[in-house]
Specification:
Radius of gyration: 20 Å
Number of helices: 13
Strand content: 15-25%
Number of strands: 10
Distance between the termini: 44 Å
Shape: globular
Helix content: 25-40%
Strand order of the largest sheet: 1-10-9-6-2-3-4-5
Amino acid sequence: METVQSTLNLPQSVEQSAIRDRDGWPMSVAEFLSGDHLNRADVVLTRKNGDLRSWLIQWATRGSFSHAALVFLVPHEEKGFNNTFVIESASNGVDLKNLATYLNDKRQVVGIKRLKGSWFDERAQSLVRGRMLNSIQSSYSYATMLRLGWAFFNELAFGIKARIWGARSAIQGRRRRTLQPPNAFICSGLVQMGFLNAVAEQVAMGYLLPQRVGQVVFQEDVARFLPRDWSQFSDAEQYEIMWDFVTGFQDVLEAVTPEDLAASSQLEWAFVVRDCLVHKVTSPEHARKLLAEEPA
């Protein structure tokens, strides 16, 4: 609790990945999933090569990924399970899916990131999962995806500036509302709101400081509306600022894209999976190299 204050004629990526380092990386998907490498609440980003729908989403969001999910269950932390499951929002609604489905597909490129900081402990991870599980009956928001694509087409950068300023004005009259899961999501918006609502709830219970909210806002332009120096405000003012932000910007953050999650400095790169081989990431530059179409 916080105190409240080759010689073979192979593609280059395959040739390189056949050589393991002293720690055994890269490793097979089966090895990876049988170990203790993943944490609950790790963020999973995917794209599918040669898939029109995946390409269209990347195009509409100017991103390198088309889908986002969250690690929900890992066998080494849950008794009685042999598979790793993610929770995600897809065209058929919010549901659970076996992570191996993504990792064993050679057309899929997968990036795995995790939230920085020792404060994001087991309790916090579980609460994020719980907030997302509350949305299991929610539907996929095609309207949000169309709005994002239309904004891109008109060079409005998803309309984010107009949405931010509108929300900034609106928060003045929105105080201490009970958080309710939205009725519809895009995949990355589900992940964002799971983190945001869970941390806000822990602040309300006295487990976390209000400024922790800033560490789970994955849209950088929106995060700038939070104070840089929270110490200039009293405890009551910090709580009010936090709650006004969470309630006032909720509609904006529901439209967070997979690229926002990929670009966020609040989430560290942990692994990249290509050609059914799992690479341990050592830096953002390493992640970019692995994710490139033809890594150097």
